[in-house]
Each structure stands twice: as C-alpha cells, then as structure tokens.
Amino acid sequence: MTSPGSYNAAIYAAGGALTAVDAVMNRQVNSAFALVRPPGHHATCWQAMGFCLFNNIAIAAKYAMANFDIQRIFIVDFDVHHGNGTQDTFYADPQVLYFSTHEYPFYPGTGSIDETGARDGEGFTVNVPLLAGWGDNEYQAVFEDVLAPVAERFEPQLIMVSAGYDAHWADSLASMQLSVSGFARLVEIIKTLADMLCQGRMVFTLEGGYNLEALSLSIAATLDILRGNRQISDPLGKQESRTKPVNFDNFIKMVKDMHEL
Ligand SMILES: [Zn+2]
User: Fold this and answer.
1) pLDDT tens by residue, 70-82
2) What are the φ and ψ backbone dihedral angles of 88, each rounded to 5 degrees?
3) Which residue from 7, 11, 147, 205 has the highest number of Cβ atoms inside 10 Å of its Cβ?
C-alpha cells in the first residue's frame, strides 16, 4: 500500500503530530488534532505495518517528554484495531500509560486483557478487547467505568488520542457498531478528564477510518466537542439498538479486577 509519495507523506504525518504537541504545550491552543495520513499506531520502532509507516503518536509522545517538562502521558486509542506498535514502544515505560479499546479477536492479534506492561511498565498498559457487534452503550460504559478511574489514578500531564473511526457501524473493515454520536460521547469523556487532570491539554492524531462519510462526520463531531459545542450532527444515525450483551457486567468487572480499580 505504498507509493513513491508515501515516505514524504509519512514524514509530514509524524511532523504534524509534533506540531500539534508544540501548539498544545506552548499554550497556543488547549487541544489540537493532527489530521494526518498515513496512520501510525501499528508501526513499531523497527517495522512498518498495517498501513502505518511511522508511529506518529509514539514519536509525538517521546517528543513531548524530551522537549517539555512532562513525565506522564496518557494515550487513549479508540481505533477499532489494537495499536500494537504504540503498546510495544511503551510496554516497559511507566511514564506513558497506553489504553486501548479494540475489536478482539481481530487484526493485528495483540491486545488481550492480560497484556498489562512489563518490568517498570507493569500496569501501565490497559487493554479492553471488545466483542464484534458492541456499540455506543458498551464503549461508553468502558470509558466511564474503566478509562476514567485509570486516568484519575495516573494523573497525566498530557492526554494523547489515537483517533481512529473504523469502529463506526458503517465502516466495512470491522464489525463494531459505534455511531457518530457515540464517538462524540467518548471524546466528551476524554475532554472532561483532560479539563480535570491536565488543564485540558489534548493532542489527537488520526488513525483509521475507511468509510469516508462516517469518517468526516466523526471528525467534525470530535472537533465540535473539543470546541465545546455539544450540538453535533449525526445524519447517519445509530445502528439498530442492540440489547446489552450477556456477561457485559462481568466483563467490565474482570477488566477492573485486572487493574485493581
Ligand atoms: Zn484501525
């Protein structure tokens, strides 16, 4: 999936994420969204993978710690795929907490609940693998009941988001049922935490999202929430509502127990 222009595009994508970090850390803006492609979260330190050449968010997190007085970064990854490259980069690093929701089992195969970090980084990786078909209600419950207490305990100085929109119900690459309003709700939860914990400092970078209508509407909704506008537009609507999956409460409890929440 590369072409002669891919290398330059990838360099600019990583650079865009660094520019977003600069803008937020220098207080030019509270939050920034690097609308870049190619995405980054599958790329490891050594290898391009899954449409990703360089790991934009991992490079930007390292850049933030090297250039600003930052010791704790919370990375949220709601792309439908597990961000194996980001996890790998910080697996033994207690300064970066990596939190991922993703369809599971699914590409790239990593992201099981018991991947929680190594050595000094033990406990600083939180994976919430979701079953195909889950949607707005389940994601919201995960963000409120797991992500929020994890973030509060970690007390980040900066929140970074691998914003992929391929968990939208209309995206044919995966099988989750999030709607545009569902994404907006997740962003709202993240923003509330950022306002409470780190003066609203947030850096978003674009990851996946392959239905262009769902992608553009979801990005617009994200920007609306970041600007404090709760009136978002969701003409695609919600997927037919599904009943709460059996054992969902047990699943949440299992994840919380795993991380002593
Ligand atoms: Zn993805």
Assistant:
1) 999 999 999 999 9
2) -55, -45
3) 205
